[in-house]
Each structure stands twice: as structure tokens, then as C-alpha cells.
Specification:
The protein is an alpha+beta fold. The chain is built from 4 helices and 8 strands; from the N terminus they run E-E-H-H-E-E-E-H-E-H-E-E. An 8-stranded mixed sheet has the order 1-2-3-4-5-6-8-7, sandwiched between helices. The chain is globular and about 40 Å long. The two termini are 23 Å apart.
């Protein structure tokens, strides 16, 4: 897959993305609401086994610099339903990159793939839920469940989705 937006190229991952993917997944603040930060070897293994071998995620690359700045989960969860998730390099937070990338993928899911629904999940009520809402996603009231955060505290996992009209 290859999608261009105003500021990004969204493409499949490549083996040479390991160091820049580690910059993202190795940052404890970026991974705060997901799982413990990855060391380089774990990031490289994840890149090869999931991102590349399973085509489970896409790379968001700055058109200006060529730098990999985002990891985007975009995978068919079940027929015509796609799961969306994102981690962006902290240096690029609050600049609209996650919105730009996710919006392009939602549009692609609906227009090209004829998907019926795109959903995302999070325990991050400060940044992720506002982005989900901005993307037009609505809470799936029946789908929220208790989980644990990285520090062992009980947290609520929220599910949001947007349906193809």
C-alpha cells in the first residue's frame, strides 16, 4: 500500500526502518498507554515478524525529510472491518500528523477497500480519544472493559468506531 497526503507518505515497512521504528516504540512516554517500551532487538523482531511478514502495520514517513515518524496499525480485523492504531515519534506530536495519516487510511478503507467499519481502542483519554472523535469515531458503549496499564493500575479500555455511510 502506498498513500500520499500533504505531508506524509504512508507505505509498508522496510527492514531498514528498524532504527527509526525503535525511536518510536522505544520511547516510554510514547508507549505509556500501550505496553512497556521496546529495546532495539524487540523493535527489530516486531518490525520483521508483524509489520513486514504479516503486513500488519504501515509506516508514516515525512515527505519533507524522508524520516519515519509514525507506526500505524491498519489491519483487517474481520471481513470489511479494519482496526486502526498509531504511535508517532514524540517530536512530531500535536502537529496533526496522526490525524492526517489516520484520516487518509479511514478514507482508503471506505473508498477503496469498501470497508463497513474502522475501529480503534485506547486507555488514553487525554490524547487518543480526542483524536478518535476528531476522526468521526463514536464510542461503542457496549465495548469497554477493564484492563491494566503499564504500571499495573486498573484502566478502562475504550472502543471507538466509524462506519461507512
Amino acid at each position: 500500500m502506498f498513500i500520499e497526503t500533504k505531508r506524509l507518505v504512508i507505505r509498508g515497512f522496510l527492514p531498514e526502518d528498524a532504527a527509526e521504528l525503535h525511536e518510536i516504540l522505544g520511547d516510554p512516554e510514547t508507549m505509556r498507554y500501550a505496553e512497556p517500551a521496546y529495546d532495539f532487538e524487540k523493535a527489530k523482531e516486531f518490525l520483521n515478524s508483524f509489520c513486514i511478514a504479516q503486513n500488519g502495520a504501515l509506516a508514516a514517513v515525512s515527505r519533507e525529510s524522508g524520516k519515519l515518524i509514525g507506526y500505524i496499525l491498519f489491519k483487517e480485523y474481520e471481513k470489511d472491518v479494519y482496526e486502526l492504531g498509531w504511535f508517532f515519534n514524540r517530536a512530531y506530536w500535536r502537529q496533526g500528523y496522526a490525524y492526517e495519516a489516520c484520516k487518509a487510511l479511514i478514507d482508503h478503507a471506505f473508498e477503496s477497500l469498501k470497508s463497513k467499519m474502522v475501529f480503534a481502542e485506547t486507555i488514553d483519554v487525554e490524547k487518543s480519544i480526542p483524536l478518535m472523535r476528531k476522526l468521526g469515531m463514536k464510542p461503542r458503549e457496549e465495548l469497554h472493559s477493564p484492563t491494566m496499564d503499564n504500571e499495573g493500575n486498573i484502566a478502562t479500555l475504550y472502543y471507538y468506531s466509524v462506519e461507512n455511510k
